[in-house]
Write a structure and sequence with these properties.
single chain, 291 residues, alpha+beta, six-stranded antiparallel beta sheet, 6 helices
Amino acid sequence: MQPISRLLILHKDHPQPEETGRALLPWLRERHVDGVLLPAGADAITMRAQAAASDAVLVLGGDGTMVGVARRLAGIRTPIAGMNFGRVGFLAGLPAEDWAEPLSAMLQGRWELEKHLTLRWRVLRRCGDTLVPRNEGVAINDVVTAHGVVARAVSLSLHIDGVLFSTLRCDGIIVSTPLGSTAYTASAGGPLTMPSMNAQLVTPICPFAGGFPPLALPAASRIHVEACRQGDQVLLSVDGQENLPLEFGDVLEIRGVPGQLHMLVSDTNWYLRRLIDRGIVTSGPGRREKN
């Protein structure tokens, strides 16, 4: 990674990250770095233009803020880093306090650039004998098809590369990126997956009829999930931030797109260390080696 001369700072709508963002601006000027400060909820046109004109984007917030920013900046490959103001902070590599030394290292180009897979999704609605696109977007963590307001099982059919793989009566199906494998996928018993892998993870949620073990599929695999029982209340959730109802016969189409999310990390083993540090992986009895 080259040294950073222009940094876009996006802060969560909360006093502490906003105050930190304002304190960063003079600190950056002293180091001959241009800083631009915007709220993470700024309009997409302004945010995308500023990101495209910057060497990096620093997000002040939690994992949800980082995911939301990454979705809004989809297609603009300016690398993203995070300063953790959330509870878990799995994606954020900078602490909310004592950030000066690691941030200096990042500005000097001493952090590593990683490229991660995202998911492109779209909803197709039946119109006679044809399927017409209705909605589409990008997911950083996962796309979930599940029951809606009524907490009861729904019927979903899963096609992979044109093959009817399974028809399930279940709580839902999760399609996840490796980066998102520590979120809902892990809670549903899916595999923890190194974020450098170009794979799509498919995990059924509490299957009642039908079912399969969690799957790891190539990025290029074409995944179709269809709401196949009339009367079911089916909801599509994207990264837990966008929700859309699916009608009977709607088809959710998903594919992986490698290299779309660029992230700056201070340690190439950050994923393994944070699995332990954040309590996602717990140690059994015995001696743990010190890092």
